[in-house]
Design goal:
The structure is a homodimer.
Chain A (H helix, E strand, L loop, with lengths): L2 H21 L13 H5 L11 H12 L21 H13 L10 H17 L13 E5 L2 H16 L4 H4 L5 E6 L4 H9 L7 E4 L10 H13 L3 E8 L11 H11 L2 E5 L24 E4 L1 H4 L7 E5 L2 H8 L9 H5 L18 H35 L4 E3 L7 E6 L3 H13 L6 E5 L2 E7 L7 H18 L3
Parallel strand pairs in A: 2-3, 2-4, 4-5, 5-6
Antiparallel strand pairs in A: 1-7, 6-7, 8-9, 9-11, 10-11
Helix pairs in contact in A: 4-14, 5-14, 6-8, 6-12, 9-10, 14-16, 15-16
């Protein structure tokens, strides 16, 4: 495809996306087709001869788009948001066009340096502790997801626990990872990948009201394990848990980790973005105790997946744990020690130029624009929570410090399951569920920049009406 | 940013990329600026108020582009290619615009199903063994890179070696991974991440002439380890090693793995793409022994990074090793068992809609178009190798079955290092190096669809002239 062919086809694809966004509100949020429906419409093998872009775009509209869950839909309130934005898409488009492989500084100096600067910009935007800035021993890097950030933190923690011998001798199964019963499944998955197994994870109980990790229980578990010859290697605290956005108390957890020399990773995948607003930084109190920290601009900061921002306080320790330097990657810049090679900060070797989308987003919105976006989400969630609170049939299940509301019909689980199914079957809105203290709970997470009071009110109207049918007479 | 604002800004970015591609040949392949030059030009913090797209594009052209290594440049012959193409960029653009999170089938049915079908299309295009098709117990998935594919293969192998208990109890340090001394560094990194440590990797010697793994040495190592109470868990064979594109002999390695019940992963990251051409499938002989296999469409198949295609013969075993199912991800489709949830096939939870770029590439080029691309690369490499062969000052260091030529000035390393530095300093071409049997060796890897006979001949002219200066009088 020549540059001129690309130009013409590129305009057509840009038009396709602009039209898709403009018509999103008219689409059902989710497909109602059964498994296999899309695959059945596709040829069983690739074409021998090439086809024009128009043919592909036709099928895109006809076969693919109707078979999607529309994450950018204003009625999408499921999971956590994974919103993108125009400037993010443009930054990603530039990245795709440049096709730069940023594994080493030398393979894309501007790719590496823009990333370092963007992570410093983000650290400033969130007012993160100074230890995470690249101007000192720390620094930030883009990971694909918080799962990978947690895995990397786990590996560094194991290396530290083994006195720097982990990378040669491997993992000792006496090491343990501590996190709350409400923590994300990626922590168990990271422990498993790192060779500790599910048995290597200690789930610490939470405060029944706040769903936040009990520092007392954490201390007790660490002390009991130490007494039994087990080695506490890592604590993962969560700022904004997946179920209910609970905030683990870092001011109490941090000192426990410091006392016992345990690596502390803070997972603020969803809620970290809120800290662009000074009044929403409460979750970061005590963050100066953390050895590493991450949040996902791809969740609530208008940056398309994948973009997890991960910081460490000691970059040297991270690189020591992960670096492998074969001859074919050696180069003068690396040998000089004057550059960052981000391949040593992550699992894969290769890397895209993801800093571009952050650069586009931060510049196009500015900090004030991002604050406005976050505040709007929080206000919409509060508006929805007010509706729930005012309706005696419902109860709020947990605090809603950010933009997620957890609620349920009072009483047994059955009607709640029924309610969720009925609400999602309308195709107008999409919610997901969780269990809080064993009870089936609905989650409404606001995040789309397209979601307005109208959409939240419509969601409530649908829920309220469906509840009438879901509750047994 | 409204859809209409995006439409206008999108045209401008498409123009920027088309112009960038059209003017690539006029740019130096690499930046000559020292570390820190780009960062020094950027503001130290993010803007408070938003800025227009035009301002960002101006800085993109002024600050970022000149600070890059231009991987799409027709004179880029370094590492392995990581070429993109117009249709790939368009597919990625659609993916960014849709902003679909494909972690579960339910969160993007078409995202999952198109991926399954595209991996089947690729399997057909490469004529992979039937065991890897989704129609049986196997199937394919997109990983970000071959590094991650190797890691996943390592984890499944460990789970199998532990009789299905790995995911609970963790890794046993008596397990060993076997690969050749010429294998990629990602195999050591995967073993380290999985908790085996560098000590858990046995590097098997290679045939001095072909640089391919010795099956005799592999058998001897496995037998010796077994006798010593060590458990051989995984063999990673390479089709197209990074240094020289050596092909490990699967027809001999496979039976050794089968005999001792060792998981066999085949890493064809670079060379796998060649198998779209029937006459270049020699490296896949014996692939029916493999438990898993991967290659990178993002290297030599005109698909932008990241896109590693990874297949397993037993998808159930893979999912068993990696799945974690928290309540907030439960859904009716998953419970039905009728769908694939690709989150269980990889390290991270989240996933982009990367099948779109494969769909765009496979349809726009067609199989014949892709064959033409591969054959042109092989022919250009052969053309360059002929030049080397005809010049008595030089020697070819290894066979060149694909599109990589390894060569050097006869004699000591010094002049070769000098030669590489002089060649790259011209800014017209970019090559990298390796060591083959300890000797400094230059690598010229053809891959860009923009590279023609003119560029290869120019590369040779530059090298030939620089050699005159690099050889001591």
């Amino acid at each position: 495809m020549t540059p001129e062919e690309f130009r013409q086809a590129g305009y057509a694809v840009v038009d396709w996306i602009a039209d898709y966004w403009a018509t999103l509100p008219q689409r059902p949020v989710t497909s109602q087709d059964p498994p296999g429906a899309v695959a059945a419409e596709l040829p069983s093998g690739p074409p021998t001869q090439g086809e024009p872009v128009e043919a592909i775009l036709t099928d895109l509209g006809k076969l693919v788009a109707p078979g999607l869950t529309h994450w950018q839909h204003p009625g999408f309130f499921g999971y956590f948001p994974a919103n993108t934005s125009g400037p993010s898409v443009l930054g990603d488009l530039v990245s795709a066009g440049l096709g730069v492989q940023g594994m080493l500084w030398a393979t894309g100096p501007a790719c590496t340096e823009l990333e370092t600067v963007m992570l410093d910009w983000l650290a400033e935007a969130l007012d993160l502790p100074a230890r995470f800035r690249s101007t000192g021993r720390g620094g930030g890097v883009i990971q694909d997801s918080a799962s990978s950030a947690t895995l990397v933190a786990t590996l560094v923690a194991l290396h530290r626990a083994a006195g720097g011998r982990w990378r040669e001798v491997g993992v000792d199964r006496r090491y343990r990872v501590y996190t709350s019963t409400e923590a994300h499944s990626s922590i168990e998955k990271a422990a498993r990948i790192a060779g500790l197994g599910t048995d290597g994870v200690r789930l610490i109980e939470v405060d029944p009201a706040t769903r936040a990790m009990s520092p007392t229980a954490l201390r007790a578990a660490i002390e009991a394990d130490r007494a039994a010859g087990v080695v506490p290697a890592l604590v993962v605290a969560t700022v904004g848990t997946t179920s209910t956005t609970a905030v683990d108390p870092l001011p109490q957890i941090g000192p426990v980790c410091a006392e016992y020399g345990v690596f502390l990773h803070v997972d603020a995948a969803y809620a970290g973005a809120a800290a662009v607003c000074p009044e929403l930084r409460f979750g970061h109190a005590g963050l100066e105790y953390a050895d590493s920290y991450c949040f996902d601009p791809h969740k609530w900061l208008l940056t398309g997946f994948d973009c997890d921002a991960f910081w460490v306080a000691d970059a040297g320790e991270l690189v020591e744990a992960l670096t492998v330097l074969p001859e074919y990657l050696r180069n003068a810049a690396t040998e000089s020690g004057a550059v960052v090679d981000y391949r040593d900060w992550q699992v894969p070797l290769g890397r895209r130029f993801r800093a571009l989308k952050l650069w586009f987003v931060l510049r196009w919105y500015g900090i004030e624009g991002l604050r406005e976006h976050i505040r709007r989400g929080v206000a919409l969630a509060a508006r929805f929570a007010d509706r729930v609170r005012a309706d005696d049939r419902f109860e709020l299940v947990a605090p809603h410090p950010y933009a997620l509301v957890c609620f349920r019909l009072r009483g047994p689980d059955g009607p709640n399951e029924e309610l969720l199914a009925r609400v999602n079957a309308t195709g107008r809105v999409f919610l997901t569920h969780t269990r809080v203290a064993g009870r089936h709970t609905l989650r409404l997470a606001v995040g789309s920049p397209q979601s307005t009071e109208t959409h939240v009110d419509e969601a409530w109207a649908i829920i309220s009406e469906a509840a009438a049918d879901a509750i047994p007479a």
